[in-house]
Design a protein that fits this description.
single chain; 260 residues; alpha/beta; Rossmann fold; ProC C-terminal domain-like fold; 12 helices; elongated
């Protein structure tokens, strides 16, 4: 199956990198330098015309800015039919809005990815429209699964997903920044403090994912009674900390709902 892309930015490139047969990919990109880069790096076909993608590919990733969706839809809508499947990674565009833009005939899948997709370690929530064929949903899972992890959810969960995994990379980076600054105050060089914090975050996440260990026993296992970790946790393990985190997610989810 030929796979198309409306848009060829960094998130689209993250998805592209997970596609095994890149020779069957065609991407719409108006910037000549970017088109040349993608052709050289991945061997894909590129075009400046989104209509060419709609003509050549029945399975298309929509990876443009939210404000550009309607313009793209206006160009390609006359070419779309029931054999087309549009997979949208556009933030804030619900299935209802996508259906209005691209028409009732086309099959739709809404995806909420995160920035880690660009490092093949993304988290993608997937929500297909009711009439979208199961085989197309499986293909979405397969492709995005090659760039991280996936989960199929109801669209009503997407505001929470946006708050947790969509916005989450910024929150984890903020925590890392705080740890780096704390390390520097203790006398470490900034580069060393960042390496220590970053590798610790990465290694902890990797261990928890691979072991499946519950979080509380893990925390308690690291916190030896009377030890250094326990001394530090006395400052962090307070109600105010978790309230701030919960409030952060709630604010992001509320804004996601407003934008939708």
């Amino acid at each position: 199956m030929k796979i198309g892309f409306f848009g060829a930015g960094k998130m689209a490139e993250g998805i592209l990198s997970a596609i095994e047969d890149k020779k069957g990919v065609v991407m719409a990109e108006k910037v000549a330098e970017r088109s040349a880069e993608l052709r050289r790096k991945y061997g894909v076909a590129t075009t400046a015309d989104v209509k060419e993608v709609a003509k050549k590919a029945k399975f298309v990733f929509l990876a443009v800015r939210p404000q550009d969706v309607d313009a793209v839809a206006a160009e390609v809508k006359p070419l779309l039919g029931e054999k087309h499947t549009i997979v949208s990674i556009v933030a804030g565009k619900t299935l209802a809005k996508l259906k209005k833009a691209f028409g009732a005939k086309v099959n739709l899948v809404r995806v909420m990815p995160n920035l880690a997709l660009r490092a093949n370690a993304g988290m993608c929530a997937i929500c297909p429209a009711a009439k979208t064929p199961a085989k197309d949903v499986k293909l979405v899972e397969k492709i995005l699964g090659g760039a991280g992890a996936t989960v199929v959810l109801k669209e009503k969960d997407f505001d929470a997903v946006t708050a947790l995994s969509g916005s989450g990379p910024a929150y984890f980076a903020y925590m890392e920044e705080a740890m780096v600054e704390g390390g520097v105050k203790l006398g470490l060089k900034p580069a060393v403090a960042r390496l220590l914090a970053e590798q610790t975050m990465f290694g902890t996440a990797k261990f928890l994912r691979e072991s499946g260990m519950a979080l509380r026993p893990f925390i308690e296992g690291v916190c030896t009674k009377g030890g250094t970790t326990a001394a530090g946790m006395e400052k962090m393990d307070v109600p105010a900390f978790k309230k701030i985190v919960a409030a952060t997610l709630a604010a992001a989810a509320k804004r996601s709902k407003e934008l939708a």
